[in-house]
Amino acid sequence: MADELGLDLVEISAKADPPVCKILDYQKYLYQQRKKAKEMRQNSVKVNIKEIRFGPNTDEHDFQFKLKHAQGFLEEGSKVKASIFFRGRSIQFADQGEKQLLRFAVELENYGRAESMPKLEGKRMSMMLAPLKKK
Fold first, then answer.
1. Around 114, how many Cα atoms within 13 Å sit in the side-chain half-sphere?
2. Cα–Cα distance measured from residue 60 to residue 85, given in angstroms and rounded to the nearest whole number
3. What is the DSSP string of 23-84?
4. Helix (H, G, I), strand (E, B) or coil at 96
5. pLDDT one-digit tens code per residue, 61-89
6. Model-level pTM?
7. Nearest Cα to Cα of residue 118 among 127, 106, 129
8. pLDDT of amino acid 126
9. Domains along the chain?
10. Cis, bond preceding 56 (omega within 30 deg of 0)
11. Which residue(s) pair with 11 in the sheet?
């Protein structure tokens, strides 16, 4: 029947009894599968990560300035990676940096939630903030 119609005989399920087959144009079927996969990739949400960096001894005004930037990033739907970079001997103030990151997360709790707690990786302490779901 498939030869008469100029189409292909495609085995759908070999383990079924009797095996299930379908008559279709196999090249057209492959094209539609690729097209559907491409459409799914286009419709998927791409997550942007914005990074905000500051030091352990950042002044209040600078902290507020960076806080406003992070607030804007979270409102537009981007994730925010807040990181504190320790230079030289300032690694001694790791606890001060952790307090600053936790304060950063608390001040932004109306706009986003902390995905991870502050963790020290080498000379950088960082944490991720994800935007809240829009209602």
1. 17
2. 17
3. EE-HHHHHHHHHHHHHHHHHHSPPPPEEEEEE-TT--HHHHHHHHHHHHHHHHTT-EEEEEE
4. helix
5. 999 999 999 999 999 888 999 999 988 88
6. 0.63
7. 127
8. 92
9. 2-43 (3.10.20.80), 49-131 (3.30.110.10)
10. no
11. 21
Distance CA(123)–CA(30), nearest Å, equals 50
The encoded tokens of residue 54 equal 């500051």
Q: What are the Cα distances from residue 115, in Å, to 29, 112, 129?
A: 42, 9, 5
Residue type, 97: G
Contact 23/39 with Cβ under 8 angstroms?
A: no
CA 40 to chain centre: 17
**Residue whose C-alpha is closest to residue 71's, from 107, 33, 118:** 107
How many Cβ atoms are within 10 Å of 108's Cβ, its own excluded?
21
Answer positive or negative: Cα dihedral of 105, 106, 110, 116. Answer: positive
Q: Three-state SS for 107?
A: helix
Strand, helix or coil for residue 22: strand
Nearest by Cα to 98 from 83, 80, 79 = 83
Helix (H, G, I), strand (E, B) or coil at 1: coil
